[in-house]
Amino acid sequence: MHGFKLLSIVLLTCLYFEGTADAQVMDIATRPGVTQRILIVASPESKAAVILFAGGNGGLQITPQGSFKYLGGNFLIRMRQAFVDQGLTVVIVDAPSDRQKDPFLGGFRQTPQHLEDMKIVIARVRQQVNLPVWLIGTSRGTQSVGYIATQLSGAEGPDGIVLTSTILTDETGRAVPKMELIKITIPVLVVHHRDDGCKLCAFSSMPSLMDGLTNARKKELIAVTGGQNRGDPCEALAYHGFNGIEATVVADIANWIKQN
């Protein structure tokens, strides 16, 4: 149904980031009248592609020049080059063109429309790089990744997922442990700070997630400690965002992906 749309890609610009490989900003046609902007940073010796889902409202507003109007300090976004240095091609997804104002992805992450957008993005990335495609989400981004992994499988879905600072409880929406985790059969890595102070991400709630991944081909929890805890406990410079230990966390994630 949407096969023709995979060819309807507007390459906006190619650019060079200091200290990075060439990067591309693309708009990919998804739903009728809607495009999904992505930023691709290739690794010279890439072993896999990772699609990164930022937390918060997910509204990065990626510019044609490849900068971010919002959420540039998010754990995954600020560490994008570290993933590239670890031999992974990085793909960063913005909110789609019809969600480019507040609340951006708020209330949208577990909808058929978001799923349709991401199904086409996964297919396009797989076609472009000819590598395994993994999804990595942090904080609210785990609600996108978890939902996608429960709804898409085989050639349409990811080859594996990584959940960091997972939303474990949520009074206003469906937390990841409440999803149909039994449907996930691909490898799942969970990375969480033991002292995460965000009320939606208490480490004591972790069993509700890990126990639900009964059919995952492989699953592992990496529980980290240390770093710096500054500001809002649910923001990027707190333990929630792995402040001060980012490089170690990225290396652990990259190694796990390459081994699986």
The gist of it:
The chain has 260 residues and is of the alpha/beta class. It has helices spanning 75-78, 80-85, 112-129, 141-151, 206-210, 246-259; strands at 9-16, 22-29, 35-41, 48-53, 88-93, 133-138, 160-164, 188-193, 219-224.
Secondary-structure blueprint:
Layout: E1 9-16, E2 22-29, E3 35-41, E4 48-53, H1 75-78, H2 80-85, E5 88-93, H3 112-129, E6 133-138, H4 141-151, E7 160-164, E8 188-193, H5 206-210, E9 219-224, H6 246-259
Parallel strand pairs: 4-5, 4-6, 6-7, 7-8, 8-9
Antiparallel strand pairs: 1-2, 2-3, 3-5
Helix pairs in contact: 3-4
Describe it for me?
This protein has 260 residues and is of the alpha/beta class. The protein has one domain: Alpha/Beta hydrolase fold, catalytic domain (Rossmann fold), CATH 3.40.50.1820. It has 6 helices and 9 strands, in the order E-E-E-E-H-H-E-H-E-H-E-E-H-E-H. It has a 9-stranded mixed sheet with strand order 1-2-3-5-4-6-7-8-9, sandwiched between helices. Helix 3 packs across helix 4 (141-151). It is globular and about 45 Å long. The two termini are 32 Å apart.
